[in-house]
């Protein structure tokens, strides 16, 4: 057994080491794969804040992933066609600046999470799952019908967006940007878990009735967790669109929501690095098994079954054992 | 005479044809333990839920320190000073003992809208939590997972959590439930001393504890209070004996 904190450090070091190895061996595709894993991990760390701490089984997190993606797609599309995003009631120009696009992605996904959360947190359990799924499907079909931005075909962006002082066209540079963001968000997650907010949220998940008798509002705690979670997943969506230089309704699909959840279940729910381990495992299976067969999901399904049945703490739980109580 | 800390006036609550609370007026004065006893299904839990805000009464009102709180929710009443313990432990089982009491302290004297600093770095909260654990004798179990506590220890933790809330009035729903004779005796001694901090409305089945602790007892049968009085009065009451206590009391 490895202590979970050591395992977390090992995971991050390996995640950094692989693309660095690829740089020296001139394997740009490996860097792209690693970047893909990092971005998926970021989306899942976002969901893990809602799911792991708040117990919110959101089956519609693709909403935020897609909103982030479309925020990038729409702003970059207008920048490359030299047209404004909107003129009335005020002028908003397109942009190729990553920080601005991230900000837009985070604000819009946060706002969407606020609206969806306000409605769906009136329910719990299977109803919550279904309502979040319904929102996902609504936005999926909306994006298909949104002809201005490519409809079903999606939107292509010709050149990756810019980050001040960094040449984002170099794969390892873009990886570094994504990796730093992931580390910051994991740190945020760790701090949240030990903060007064995290403690109250965790209790609201376990015993909402009790939390009310403390004068605390479990719904408000969960709503804020849902918003933070949506913001992080939205940011991941913007990065994903930038990685592929393409955004399409697939980012809103329920399969995407399912995949984000699979990353967490594979790696370990509520484990700090569970989503990272899950996302990396998924991308590796996708790459290696996908090369052997189009039907590689069969093996993913089998692995998921094994993890759910025999390793309740996910792969992280399997390696580091039961979670020790926080001091 | 001083005013009651907590009082209900003519509370009514029906579920369809069943009258679960029927014209219940009950009061709790400073320094006293007022026990509510009654057979299963008498409406004790419904009454507690109406006092604490989980259920809205059909008629009547609940007052805390003279303020009408009938139309407020559980959260507001908790903030106003009602400290409740649960019959079936509603503790956060995946958390440690210390985390459970910290949460109570957070509700009483902190804000949950703090995100980046660990809760343990808040000295005031940690001290309040630790003190509560020391008072119920759980200080050596601070780092134990709540799910690993014995039943008796969980009951102690319930009380510790209520202590951190520093309430104006305690509402305790069968704190002795499931405790052995020894545990029950210890908790009885503890609650006896607690009444000077805040009066206790005690719903309890353990008659030894009730008779040892209560200044007054109200007997609830089919949603109605059939008698209120001192221990001696209740013991002597023919009505109560027929309806609830039996001849052995």
- Which outline of chain A best applies? globular
Radius of gyration of chain A, in angstroms, nearest whole number: 19 Å
- Pick out the low-confidence regions of chain A: none
Helix vs. strand class of chain B = alpha/beta
- H and E string of chain A: HHHEEHHEHHHHEHHHH
Oligomer classification? heterodimer
Percent of residues of chain B in beta strands?
A: 15-25%
How many domains of chain B? The number is 2
The largest beta-sheet of chain B arranges its strands as 6-7-8-3-9-10
How many domain units of chain A? 1
> What is the helix tally of chain B?
9
State the end-to-end CA separation of chain A. 20 Å
CATH class of the largest domain in chain B: Alpha Beta
Biggest β-sheet of chain A: count, sense, barrel?
2 strands, antiparallel
SSE succession of chain B: EEEHEEHEHHHEHEHEEHH
- Please give the order of strands in the largest beta sheet of chain A: 1-2
Structural class of chain A: mainly alpha
- The biggest beta sheet of chain B, please? 6 strands, mixed
How would you state the average pLDDT of chain B, rounded? 91
Number of helices of chain A: 13
Map the helices and strands.
The complex is a heterodimer of chains A (327) and B (249).
Chain A: H1 4-24, H2 28-53, H3 62-80, E1 84-86, E2 92-93, H4 98-120, H5 125-145, E3 155-156, H6 171-194, H7 196-206, H8 208-213, H9 218-244, E4 246-247, H10 254-267, H11 274-292, H12 297-310, H13 314-320
Antiparallel strand pairs in A: 1-2, 3-4
Helix pairs in contact in A: 1-2, 1-6, 2-6, 2-9, 2-10, 2-11, 3-4, 3-9, 4-9, 6-7, 7-9, 10-11, 10-13
Chain B: E1 6-15, E2 18-28, E3 33-37, H1 44-52, E4 59-64, E5 67-68, H2 74-80, E6 82-85, H3 97-109, H4 123-136, H5 151-164, E7 169-173, H6 181-194, E8 200-203, H7 207-213, E9 216-221, E10 224-229, H8 231-236, H9 238-245
Parallel strand pairs in B: 3-8, 3-9, 6-7, 7-8
Antiparallel strand pairs in B: 1-2, 1-4, 4-5, 9-10
Helix pairs in contact in B: 3-4, 3-5, 4-5
Give your account of this protein's structure.
The complex is a heterodimer of chains A (327) and B (249). Chain A has one domain (4-320). The two termini of chain A are 20 Å apart. Helix content of chain A is 71%, strand content 3%. Chain A is globular and about 55 Å long. Chain A is built from 13 helices and four strands. The model of chain B has no long low-confidence stretch (mean pLDDT 91). Chain B has helices at 44-52, 74-80, 97-109, 123-136, 151-164, 181-194, 207-213, 231-236, 238-245; strands spanning 6-15, 18-28, 33-37, 59-64, 67-68, 82-85, 169-173, 200-203, 216-221, 224-229. Chain B has a six-stranded mixed sheet with strand order 6-7-8-3-9-10, sandwiched between helices. A four-stranded antiparallel sheet of chain B has the order 2-1-4-5, covered by helices on one side. Helices cover 37% and strands 24% of the residues of chain B. In chain B, strand 7 (169-173), helix 6 (181-194) and strand 8 (200-203) form a beta-alpha-beta unit. Chain B folds into two domains: 1-81 and 168-249, Rossmann fold; 91-166, no CATH class. The chains are: A mainly alpha (327), B alpha/beta (249). Chains A and B meet through helix 6, helix 7 and helix 8 of A and helix 2, strand 6 and helix 3 of B.
């Amino acid at each position: 057994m490895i202590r979970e904190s050591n395992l977390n450090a090992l995971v991050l070091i390996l995640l950094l080491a692989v693309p660095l190895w690829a740089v020296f061996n001139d394997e740009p595709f490996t860097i792209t794969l690693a970047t893909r894993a990092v971005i998926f991990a970021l989306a899942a760390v976002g969901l893990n804040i809602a799911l792991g701490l708040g117990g919110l089984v959101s089956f519609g997190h693709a909403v935020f992933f897609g909103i982030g993606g479309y925020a990038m797609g729409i702003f970059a599309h207008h920048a490359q066609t030299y047209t404004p995003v909107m003129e009335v009631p005020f002028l908003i120009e397109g942009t190729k600046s990553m920080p601005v696009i991230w900000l837009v992605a985070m604000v819009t996904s946060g706002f969407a999470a606020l609206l969806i959360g306000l409605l769906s947190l009136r329910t719990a359990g299977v109803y919550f799952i279904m309502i979040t799924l319904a929102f996902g499907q609504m936005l999926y079909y909306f994006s298909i019908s949104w002809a201005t931005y490519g409809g079903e075909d999606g939107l292509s962006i010709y050149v990756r967006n810019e980050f001040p002082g960094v040449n984002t066209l170099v794969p390892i540079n873009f990886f570094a940007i994504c990796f730093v963001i992931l580390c910051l968000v994991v740190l945020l997650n760790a701090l949240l878990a030990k903060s007064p907010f995290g403690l109250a949220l965790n209790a609201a998940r376990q015993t909402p009735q009790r939390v009310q008798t403390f004068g605390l509002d479990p719904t408000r705690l969960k709503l804020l967790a849902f918003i933070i979670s949506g913001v992080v997943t939205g940011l991941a969506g913007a990065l994903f669109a930038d990685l592929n230089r393409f955004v399409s309704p697939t980012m809103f699909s329920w399969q995407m929501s399912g995949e984000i959840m699979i990353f967490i279940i594979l790696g370990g729910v509520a484990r700090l690095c569970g989503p990272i381990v899950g996302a990396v495992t998924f991308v590796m299976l996708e790459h290696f098994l996908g090369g052997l067969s189009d039907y590689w999901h069969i093996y993913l399904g089998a692995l998921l079954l094994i993890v759910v049945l025999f390793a309740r703490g996910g792969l992280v739980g399997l390696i580091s054992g039961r979670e020790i109580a926080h001091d | 005479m001083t005013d009651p800390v907590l009082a209900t006036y003519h509370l009514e609550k029906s579920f369809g044809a069943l009258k679960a609370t029927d014209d219940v007026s009950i009061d709790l004065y400073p320094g006293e333990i007022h026990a509510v006893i009654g057979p299963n299904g008498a409406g004790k839990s419904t009454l507690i839920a109406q006092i604490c805000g989980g259920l809205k009464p059909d008629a009547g009102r609940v007052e805390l320190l003279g303020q009408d709180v009938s139309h407020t929710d559980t959260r507001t009443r908790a903030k106003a000073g009602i400290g409740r313990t649960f019959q079936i432990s509603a503790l956060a089982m995946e958390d440690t003992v210390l985390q459970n009491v910290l949460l109570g302290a957070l509700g009483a004297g902190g804000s949950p809208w703090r995100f980046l600093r660990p809760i343990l770095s808040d000295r005031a909260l940690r001290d309040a939590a630790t003190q509560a654990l020391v008072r119920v004798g759980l200080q050596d179990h601070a780092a134990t997972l709540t799910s690993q506590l014995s039943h008796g220890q969980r009951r102690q933790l319930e009380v510790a959590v209520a202590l951190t809330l520093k309430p104006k009035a305690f509402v305790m729903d069968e704190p002795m439930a499931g405790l052995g004779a020894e545990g029950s005796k210890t908790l009885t001694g503890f609650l006896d001393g607690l009444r000077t901090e805040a009066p206790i409305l005690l719903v309890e089945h353990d008659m030894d504890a009730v008779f040892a602790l209560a200044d007054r007892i109200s007997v609830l049968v089919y949603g109605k209070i059939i008698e209120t009085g001192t221990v001696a009065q209740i013991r002597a009451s023919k009505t109560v004996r027929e309806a609830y206590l039996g001849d052995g009391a």
